[in-house]
Amino acid sequence: MAILPRYQRIGLKTRQPQQMDFAAAREQARLGQNISQQLDRMSDFAFKQAAAEAETRGQESVREDGALPTLTALREAGGPTNIEERAAFDAANRIAVVEIESLAKQDYQNLVRDADKNDMPMSVFQESMAAIQDGYAASLQEVDPVAAGVLSARLSDSAMTYQGRYSDIATKKATVVAANRVTEIAEIGAKEIIDMALSATFNEQNIELAAGKYVNDLIALGVSEKNAKKAADSTLNKAVRENRIYTYDNASSINTKKALLKVYENRPLPGATYEANLAFNTKLENSLNKEITRAQNVAAKDLTEAIDAMALTLQPPPGFEIDEEYIKSIYPEEQAEQYIESWSNASEDAANRGALSSMSIERTLEIAGELQKEFNDAKANGTPTDIINAQARENFWIESINKRSDALNKDAAAFVVGTDEVAAGIVDNINGSIEGNDLLGLSENLLLLQDFMEKRFDEIDLPQNLRTVMPKQMAARLASVVENFDSDVATVYFSAIQEGLEDYAPKFIQELRSAGLNPEYIQAMYTDNLLVQKELVDLSKLTMEELLVGQPSTTKSDVDAEIVAALEDYRTAYLTGGDEVGSQIFNEQFDTVEKLSISRLKTGGSVAEVVEGVIKDLIPEVSQTVINSSGIYVVPMEFDEQVIDKNVSMLMDIDIMKQLPFVELDTDKFPEFINREVSAASLSSTGKFLNNSTGDGLSLHYVTSKGMLPAGFEVKFSELPEMVSNLYKETPEGLKVFEESMGYNQESQKFIDEYNN
Predict the structure, then answer these.
(1) What angle do CA 679, 684, 688 make, to 5 degrees?
(2) Element spanning 72, H or E
(3) What DSSP string describes 566-595?
(4) How far apart (Å, rounded) are the C-alpha atoms in residues 648 and 645?
(5) Which of 91, 108, 404, 407 has the lowest CB atom count within 10 Å?
(6) How many CB atoms lie within 10 A of CB 58?
(7) Residue 596 near residue 618 (C-beta atoms within 8 A)
(8) What whole-number distance in Å separates Cα of residue 223 and Cα of residue 221?
């Protein structure tokens, strides 16, 4: 038997039924009638049996062909005409109604799920239900109006059921939405009160009034009076708490915060337990104590910086002033008075002593002695307060001197710029020249800065080795600027520096070297040959590996050997009077000579010829190397080496040596024999003049078994001839040599010789 197919709805149309042929059945029926008429009918039993068989066949045909196709075929044939057709029609009616109703219920279920998911309005839901009901009923209307009516009634009952189900769902959702809306409105109202509490114009009285209105609003929304008051109390308590915190945090002063804490202590938080209120006030008090501590630290730092500035420049830092009321609010009474008095004393002391920034070392020591005396007097005759103040003044002065000394040792030029408005203004002009690429202005302002620096350095008796042309930060910036110049621009810059800085140029170049300027640029700045300058700048862009491409494998070693031989005496003289910086400079010179020599070899010439030419271009001072009994040094090209050598040898005369401001030899070996006369004799007989640290003069040294020891005397090459001339003019005619000198005899000479050996 064939499987009964499921009914499938497509819109409001029905599937077209297949054509069924009942001709055989009708023919059989007519034949039976004829036979019955002719044979006087069959017995009732035989007829009933045939009817039953026909009914069975009709039902089977429905199962085989489907309910709707059967109904459609019978309708088109004019309706059932026999038992078999009537049985098929009745069975098809029953089955079709059940099938269609089942499909409709499935659509009802889907509609309820979709409506729930999408929050479908009830009106839209009802329209959708009616469409399903009418659509499925219409599918039977043309086939069997009676069955269609039955189906419509049954679908209507089902629709009511599903509509009620969705109504329950929608009602529950509406209830939740309404509740959420009430909650949302309540939260908005509560937040409004909290936000209002975070305002300078809103106080606790305003909060209580707002809370009362809040109760009425909640009741109007359907909230019970009990719950409304509960919500309002909660909001009130929180708002008051937040208002107190806000008011405290935004208080104008520490004194105001102190007053607020007293008010809060006497007025507990609404709804808070004793413990909670105590915790709240304690938290604010701890916050205030931390704020006071921070304020004290800042005030102490500001005072220290102000006193330091006043001591250095007689001017406090910009914007600094003592607010006595504020100081008294953050310090206990006694400490506040000490704070205010400290500033008053510092101002008075600075006015009496003068600016430390321009004070000589000798004067600083004099003041230190005066303060020491004041302290001793206070200990002998003063009150405890006098003793404390005197000691504080002395300690502060010593500390200030040490700070100044540290700053000068670190960067003397930066110290001057930081303590002098004129120097700071010149630096600003230099920075403007750098930014504007104004080389003339740059060199002029650098020279102006150096002159000003020297004046200030002279005022404070700063040692020569600490004096600089410019602050280290400026030197680093200039070095970076110079290295970005193309060779054409660089040569113009070098010329401007050489001409503009005059005698300060070597010192300026040395400071650029210390700031990290490329060695090729350094050497370029020491020569006035524009072609060599350009050659060196271009050379700085090449590595040794690039220079050696295409050269014989022995080129570098051959060049190095030639350079070592040519610079032997120069190296000895240069390094003997130098230090680590001197070694660095010589190594840079060597490397630059090496690179330039290898570069020039590409154009031809022997190694010896090329190296000689490079040294002549870069280090012409090699020809002015002096190594003799008077000294080991190199004379700059602007001076006559023979003239310098002659004058140095004249300084070695014992009578002349005694006139020099040298420092006596310091030794633990023969302390009883070492004095100025003996020291002079040692310098005259074995002393050596070496290049000073700046290369512009000579420094006298003791020659001992421990090595070369500075004797504390220096002379510039430019000043040497005149100084020697004056010394010889001023030497007394009857001056005797060592035998007549105080504390000196032939026995002492033995100790000197032994010490020197």
Answers:
(1) 100
(2) helix 67-76
(3) HTHHHHHHHHHT--HHHHHHHHHHHHHHHH
(4) 5
(5) 407
(6) 25
(7) yes
(8) 6
